[in-house]
Every structure is written in C-alpha cells, then in structure tokens.
Amino acid sequence: MRDVAAYARDLVQRAERTLTLTGAGVSAESGVPTFRGAGGLWKNFRPEELATPGAFARDPRLVWEWYDWRRRRVRECRPNAAHLTLAAFARDRGPARSCIVTQNVDGLHAAAARHAAADDAAPPHEATAPLELHGSLFRVRCTECGARRDHADPIDTSSTEALPRCERCQALLRPDIVWFGEPLEDVVLGRAIARARDANVCVVVGTSAVVQPAASLAMVTKRAGGVVIEVNPETTPLTPIADVSIRGTAVEVVPRVFA
Ligand code: NAD
Ligand code: ZN
After folding, report:
1. Rounded Cα gap, residues 199 and 16, in angstroms
2. Closest-approaching ligand to the CA atom of 165
3. 8 A C-beta contact, residue 108 and residue 27
4. According to the model, what pLDDT value does residue 127 have?
5. Structure letter (DSSP) for residue 36
6. CA–CA distance from 154 to each of 34, 137, 191 (Å)?
7. Is there an atom of ligand 1 within 6 Å of 175 CB?
8. Strands of 244-246's sheet, edge to edge?
9. Contact 154, 70 (CB under 8 A)
10. 8-state DSSP, 162
C-alpha cells in the first residue's frame, strides 16, 4: 500500500485542481455507521423505508424519531484524521484549487473546516466549506414554504402534534436531507459537476459508488482527461475505472496522500 499511496500523493500534490468526493466510509472511523455496514439499521427498518417523502407523508413521527436517533449518535462523533487532513489541505490550497464534495449528512467536514480555520486565525471562508450533496442532519426545511434553518436541538417525537413547525407558516418541518427518490438540488449539483470537470485529480473516499448521480462525478473528471484515485478497504463499482486504487481505511490513507 505504501508505494501506491506515495504515487497517489505525488499526483495530488502536483495537481493544479483537486476534487475529493466522500461517502459514509470517511466517517466510519469517527463512529458514524454506514448504511450498508453493521449498526446502520434502526428498529429493523431499512433506511430506504424511512428516508423517503412517502414515509414522511405517512408517518412523520416515525421518520423524525429515526432522525432524532441519528442526530444524537452523530452529535457524539468528532471529525477524524481524514476529515481534518482534508480540511487543512483545502485551507492551504484555497477554494480555487481544492473542493470537497460529500454525500454525507453528518456535518463532520464542516466541523473540520471550522477547526482548520481556528488553527489559522483566518476566518472560515465560505468557499472552502464542503458541498453537501445530500443536505445535513442538523438543518430543517419547511414542507410548505421551503424555509431552511440550522437546528441541532433534540426533537420532541412524543406525538405528531409535538413535531417541529415552521415559524413562518406553521407547516411541519422536515430534515433538510435529499431523500431516496428526490432530485439533488440543481445549484449544488451544478457546482459539483463544474468542479469535477475542472479537476486534474478526483479522489473518491469511502463511498460504495452505488448512489447516483454523486458517483458519476468521478466519471466527469475522467472524461475531461483527469485522474481518478479511489480510497476504500473494499472494491466498488468504481474500481474498474479508477487509475489508482488504494485498499485501506480513510484514516490510514488520507493523511498519507494529502498531508
Ligand atoms: P455506503 O454505506 O453505501 O458505503 C460506504 C463505503 O465506505 C463502502 O464502500 C465501504 O467499503 C467503505 N468504508 C467502510 N469503512 C471505511 C473506512 N474506514 N474508510 C474508508 N472507506 C470505508 O455509503 P455511501 O456510498 O456514502 O452511500 C450511502 C448514502 O447514505 C449516502 O447518500 C449518504 O448520504 C447516506 N449516509 C450518510 C452517512 C453520513 O452522513 N455519515 C452515513 C450513512 C449513510
Ligand atoms: Zn413554512
């Protein structure tokens, strides 16, 4: 692994522009379970049965109960060496030369970016914030008027009446998350595709690459003539198109490549 990681490091450090795409695997060593790994299940429901607009319409209390459970688990987790190394890399290179795109909703890249900015005394730059393709566990959105806000406090799920409501229009609030069957937000996806096209190197860390269109970002870089590096302990559907595959965990590999 050492030689492959050294080769990948060379590619990344020389690249004019990089894009790093991360999935649930980058947060596994922070203690956040992946959906497909052990610990991803809740009360015997599969995420595909709960993270849908239909499930929320049928039983908003049940869906909020699951999100409240996930929020509580994630709140106890801290960014790991992979998040922190990527954040320091993004800070040092600047937003024009580096971009982090994540499928995760755990907010750990954003927490690492705040940490990196505090190290530096410079205020966190909005452009170095990660692009969160699937939203955030710690934001809510109104089901009627679409108003969004940060919301990290526990949710009262004791009854449907107790669920959080919009201050403007009193409609139910929902997690600000892209659910199964919902499209990604055009603006966020458009920015991610543009950055993938411009990147000389796309590094894909800890995603099973089965969730589209996020996984196709690596293909965008590749078609535009860039290089794709994969970091994952297992092979994925992306492995055949990766120019470099590093078998290892995010915490083992990312600091070797990006520090
Ligand atoms: P996934 O659960 O489908 O796949 C996780 C991938 O990470 C696998 O390929 C696995 O081999 C790899 N992996 C496991 N441990 C790793 C480690 N220590 N280091 C590096 N890689 C490791 O996750 P996905 O591809 O991100 O897709 C699942 C969807 O579920 C996403 O859309 C995401 O929004 C959501 N999700 C998010 C979180 C989170 O925010 N942390 C957690 C679970 C699911
Ligand atoms: Zn509203």
Report:
1. 8
2. 2
3. yes
4. 57
5. S
6. 22, 11, 32
7. no
8. 131-132, 98-102, 18-22, 201-205, 227-231, 244-246
9. no
10. G
Burial of 223 (0-12, 13-18, 19+ CB in 10 A): exposed
From ligand 1's centre to the CA of 212, what distance in Å? 13
C-beta 105 within 6 A of ligand 1: yes
Q: Inter-axis angle of helices 250-258 and 2-14, to 10 degrees? A: 50
H-run or E-run covering 228: strand 227-231
> Which of 27, 30, 34 to mutate for ligand 1's pocket (most ligand atoms within 8 Å of CB)?
34
Mean pLDDT, consecutive 10-residue segments, the chain of 259 residues?
90 98 96 80 87 96 96 96 97 94 96 83 64 95 96 95 96 97 94 97 92 85 97 94 96 98
Q: Which ligand is located closest to the Cα atom of residue 169?
A: 2
Q: How far apart are CA 34 and CA 67, in angstroms?
A: 15
**pTM of the entire predicted model:** 0.93
Separation between Cα atoms, residue 137 and residue 111, nearest integer Å = 13
CA distance 174 to 58: 13
Say which residue the tokens 């800890």 belong to. Answer: 206
d(CA 208, ligand 1 centre) in Å: 6
- For ligand 2, the distance from its centroid to the CA atom of residue 50, given in whole angstroms, is 22
As a whole number of angstroms, the distance between CA 127 and CA 136 comes to 17
Catalytically annotated residues: 134
